[in-house]
From TrEMBL:
<dbReference type="GO" id="GO:0046910">
    <property type="term" value="F:pectinesterase inhibitor activity"/>
</dbReference>
<keyword id="KW-0732">Signal</keyword>
<dbReference type="Pfam" id="PF04043">
    <property type="entry name" value="PMEI"/>
</dbReference>
<protein>
    <submittedName>
        <fullName>Pectinesterase inhibitor 11-like</fullName>
    </submittedName>
</protein>
<feature type="signal peptide">
    <location>
        <begin position="1"/>
        <end position="22"/>
    </location>
</feature>
<dbReference type="InterPro" id="IPR006501">
    <property type="entry name" value="Pectinesterase_inhib_dom"/>
</dbReference>
<feature type="domain" description="Pectinesterase inhibitor">
    <location>
        <begin position="27"/>
        <end position="186"/>
    </location>
</feature>
<dbReference type="InterPro" id="IPR035513">
    <property type="entry name" value="Invertase/methylesterase_inhib"/>
</dbReference>
<comment type="similarity">
    <text>Belongs to the PMEI family.</text>
</comment>
<dbReference type="InterPro" id="IPR051955">
    <property type="entry name" value="PME_Inhibitor"/>
</dbReference>
Amino acid sequence: MAKSAFLLLLLSISTLFATTSAAGYGGASNFIKSRCNFTTYPDLCVQSLTNFASRIQQSPRQLVQTALTVSLSHARSARSFVWKLTKFTGLKPREYAALRDCLEEVGDTVERLSKSVEELKLVRRSKRRDFEWHISNVETWVSAAMTDGNTCSDGFAGAVLNGRIKSSIRRRIVDLTRFISNALALINNYAQNQS
């Protein structure tokens, strides 16, 4: 009898914990969805951030931090992709030059997003009057990171560079700039709501 009472108690506690966890996760997921409505690519925003719901909870700053970190991860992946393309044999001289320029631009994107991730950490520890300074730096660097991505794509303009390299780069850079655009929208929304 004592054993079955213990098992019943254990089952009740497990059910309560599962229900509480699911409610917390659901709240975080709803929070992410509501904030992603402010972005240009809301479906991508939700898809890329929902996996981090337990970390984000309902924290606007953590949402922005996670969006920046996800963008940084995609920027590093894009930089690696472009670097590998520069190693292909048989590239036309203009393709190689465009790839080298793109590699530099995407490298700048990685650097600016890295700085933004670190700067946003200072927002949490800063005094109220310093908030605007730090968030302004983040907004500036993320905006510049998006411009870098667009500059990379622009390097492949013109019919001379049409082909698989161009389409591969464009696809990867469009994907990256969408993540960055979403992160910037979330940052702007966070800044407006904190002022």
